[in-house]
Amino acid sequence: MAAASPGATHAIAPERNLRRFAWPVGYVVVILFLFFLYQSILPSLVKPVQAPILAWLPVATINECLMWAIMALGLNVVVGYAGLLDLGYVAFWALGGYTAGWLMAFPFNWTFNFHLFSPVRANAPGTHINFWLVCIVAGVLCSILGLIIGAPTLRLRGDYLALVTLGFGEVITQFFRNSGDIAGYNIAGGDPGISSIDPIGTGPLGALGVAPKLLTNSAAGNIWKILVLGLLVGICIFISLRIREGRLGRAWLALREDELAASMMGVPLVRVKLLAYAVGAFFGGIGGVANASGITTAVSPSGFDFGKSVLVLLMVVLGGMGNVWGVTIGAFLLSWLNSNGLKQIGVQFDALAGTNLEASLPRYNYVILGLLLVLMMLFRREGLIPESRTKALMQMPSRTEAESLGADSLEAEAESEAVEHSDAAGDAKIAASAAAMAGSGAGTGHTTGTGPRREEES
Amino acid sequence: MVERVLGYAIVALILVWFVANIVADPDRFLGSLLVGLQNGLLYALVALGYTMVYGIVELINFAHGDLFMLTTIIAAGLMVSLLGVTQIGLVSVVALLLALVVCMAAGGFINMSAEFLAYRRLRSAPKLAPLMTAVGISFIFRGIAQQEYVNGSAQKNWPISWGGPQVEGVYIYKLVMVFAVTVPLLLLMTWIVSRTKMGKAMRAVAQDQDGARLMGINVNGTISFVFGLGGALAGAAGVLYFLCQTQTYYDTGTQLGLIAFTAAVLGGIGNLTGAVVGGLAIGIIQALNEGAAYGLGSNWSQSVVFVILIILMVFKPEGIFGRPTTEKV
Predict the structure, then answer these.
(1) Which residues from chain B sit within 8 angstroms of residue A171, using beta carbons?
(2) What sign does the dihedral A15-A19-A21-A22 (CA atoms) show?
(3) Beta-carbon contacts of residue B250 (< 8 Å; ≥ 6 apart)
(4) Which of B124, B153, B258, B309 is most worth mutating to test chain A (most A CB atoms within 10 A of its CB)?
(5) Residues of chain A positioned with their CB less than 8 A from the CB of B141
(6) pLDDT for A278-337, tens place per residue?
(7) A14 or B110: which carries more pLDDT confidence?
(8) Is the minimum CB–CB distance between B218 and chain A shorter than 8 Å?
(9) Cα separation, A346 vs A340, whole angstroms
(10) Could you report the predicted ipTM of this complex, rounded to two decimals?
């Protein structure tokens, strides 16, 4: 915990330059370790060591976790940074997935064949475009969709915003469900969706014989997918971290904390909000492609329900809104629990107590996730690894409550205290500048909810 | 100004659509209208639960639709498995009344417990916290309904058959049942809110919690009562919905809950008359879209409802009966 006084910030400036490289190096080490663990270390280990690792953390689960991390990081931009509650995030996941379906498969009566840097054999029918290009295309398409969704919601706030985004999410899912026959055209295969989407190709590595040419859902393919998806997650983390420190990121934070004050201070609300949607949607599109091409190899409308939107939101809230690392950890934890963890906990418990939880525990995943969410909200609202500013805000009553208690005089004090309690010097700097952007209102007590926590009346 | 013109244009478009449907096929229009009335009243019951809770604690109770879904399952279990009702006629009125009482009590109890255990502790928290809690509780309800011993994750059909005269494919008894249950409940609601002491307390708490507390009103008790009332209405809607559809599904709550919420917003959230009018409007528009001559069909009914919601949010977020609010500094 570094002290956050201006002097300290100045003194550690050279160190900060070094620390800039700390997380990329650490992240690469973790991903490479995971890769080599499954690629070369595990096969050479004895069975009693190897089996539990494979049981608790199968390679397929790691890939799923990484894919969900992309989604959570994307939603974090919208909800965590800009404070725009989005309950229809699944729309972007779906559109990304369907983009992969359109550009990386032989969906339906496709009349022309088109190949572009694709790893599949050249005479295969249908459109086959390189995974990375499709990621970009899907990202751009989703950003456009994000702008379309964002535009009518610009004036809404809070609950209404949540509802409209939810409506958009449902409309888009229903569009894909009915897409088998839209005015007589088959656009996206309707209920069965599009299957056999191209797996990720490895390009030169595959040509050299180092990696399998196509990363299918085989054991070897899954291990190599750790690297590909890990790279995508790394890019998303990098963008998230950098964008937060820039002008746009600070504008988002100001917007999140008090829209009115931010607009008074000259934050261009329309542009900043739309950009939040666009950037979040871009990530969502990449997540959709990663899911369709790397994990399920098929897209169908039944996978894109409201529950998925909530699951991603849960990852963001559980991990700690606004904190990139918290969100990543939240995504890993929840997707692990969802795909493998609950079952494995059941297996372990069965072995100890002789019950039969292996089958029943995964069936209760909705109940368990719901309970987790409620308990988090009751006892640790700010998430597992909270961002310092969110923490301060989440523990204080809303503005009107504080005012009605006559707490105005205490607010400025609490605000400066919150800034001082920031974990890192960098955070404090950002926070201070965001507060400055949010206006001098911060000092006079007009930002959202600061003041002592209200007593629970009973 | 442009917005007002656009708003009128949309209303005019809907009217033209209505008239075109009447002209093209009056019989189908009538049938759809009856179905719409029947569904609309159910939506109104559920929408009232949303709107009352929103009016008093400014919370979109995402779990309300799933609470409704739970009560459909309770009603199914009680009426078919326990009482063995397979025919709806005069004889089953007693069973219907019993199911209504049980489901209303269950709905009220579950909603009040949720309020007591979760929302109450989050009343002074930022808005996101109770909203997420509601989502969590809705997950719990869905998870419970998905268990095999409750309902299972597939749609479950119950052997209930309707008899009696029909008009354009709509059972008259169904319509009568819905009217006979819904209208007295709505009147009772109006009476409670406008004439009783509790209603006065509700209105006071909705206006200003601290002020109400200073006037000696038991704020927690009042809020709890509102949740109970909303839950009871959802319970009644659950019984009627089950008897009309004769099936139960763990996902009905999300779908119908969203529609009902749209109805509440359409009427102006927090406004009780608005919820009823909105429910009827949404029910009729949805039924016409599905059944009348010019409609997109049931494949698109969700989309139609949500497009209405989105248009409404953009042009008239305060709804038909609501008052516009301005941001205070």
Answers:
(1) 302-303, 306-307
(2) positive
(3) B69, B142, B145, B146, B151, B152, B153
(4) B124
(5) 370
(6) 999 999 999 999 999 888 888 888 888 888 888 898 899 888 888 899 999 999 999 998
(7) B110
(8) no
(9) 10
(10) 0.85
Token pair belonging to B233: 């209405």
- Establish if B68 belongs to a structural domain: yes
Number of independent structural domains in chain B: 1
Does B13 reside within a domain? no
Any idea what the CATH number is for the domain that residue B187 is in? 1.10.3470
- Span B256-296, pLDDT tens digits: 888 898 888 888 888 888 889 999 999 998 888 887 777 77
pLDDT at A140: 96
How far is residue A235's CA from residue A233's CA, in Å, rounded to a whole number?
5
**Nearest residue in chain A measured CA to CA from B213:** A457
Establish if B77 belongs to a structural domain.
Answer: yes
Contacts of B290 in chain A (CB under 8 A): none
From B9's Cα to the closest Cα of chain A, the distance in A is 18
Rg (CA), chain B: 20
Residue of B nearest to A447 (CA): B329
Whether residue B163 is contained in a domain is answered as yes
Among the listed residues B186, B164, B171, the one whose alpha carbon sits nearest the alpha carbon of residue B236: B186
Cβ-nearest to B317 among A160, A171, A310: A160
Residues A296, A287: Cα–Cα separation, whole Å: 12
Instruction: Name the token pair of A347.
Output: 């297996």
- Dump pLDDT digits (tens) for B186-228: 999 989 988 999 999 998 998 888 899 999 999 999 999 999 9
Which string of b and e fits A193-228 if b means at least 16 CB within 10 Å?
A: bbeebbbbbbeeebeeeebbbbbbeeeebbbbbbbb
Question: Which run of H or E residues covers position A132?
Answer: helix A131-150
Multiple choice CATH, A57-386, 1.10.10, 1.10.20, 1.10.1740, 1.10.3470: 1.10.3470
pLDDT, tens digit (0-9, with 9 covering 90-100), for B288-322: 888 777 777 778 888 888 888 888 777 777 777 76
Of A155, A167, A177, the CB nearest to B306: A167
The structure tokens listed for B213 are 């507390």
- Amino acid in position B11: V
A380 touches chain B (CB under 8 A): no
Alpha-carbon distance of A126 to B206, in angstroms, equals: 60
How many contiguous H segments (helices) and E segments (strands) does chain A have?
24, 6
For chains A and B, what is the number of CB pairs under 8 angstroms?
145
Tokens coding A184: 């007589």
Q: Which amino acid is at A315?
A: M
Domain boundaries, given as residue ranges, for chain A:
57-386
**Domain of residue B271, residue span:** 25-315
Q: How far apart are CA B201 and CA B216, in angstroms?
A: 10
> How many CB atoms neighbour CB A424 within 10 A?
16
Does any CB of chain B come closer than 8 Å to the CB of residue A264?
no
Q: CB–CB of A366 and B261 under 8 A?
A: no
| pTM listed for this prediction | 0.82
The answer to whether the CB atoms of B129 and A381 lie below 8 A apart is yes
The reply to whether residue B130 touches residue A377, judged by beta carbons under 8 angstroms, is: yes
Query: Which chain A residues have a beta carbon less than 8 Å from that of B144?
Result: 367
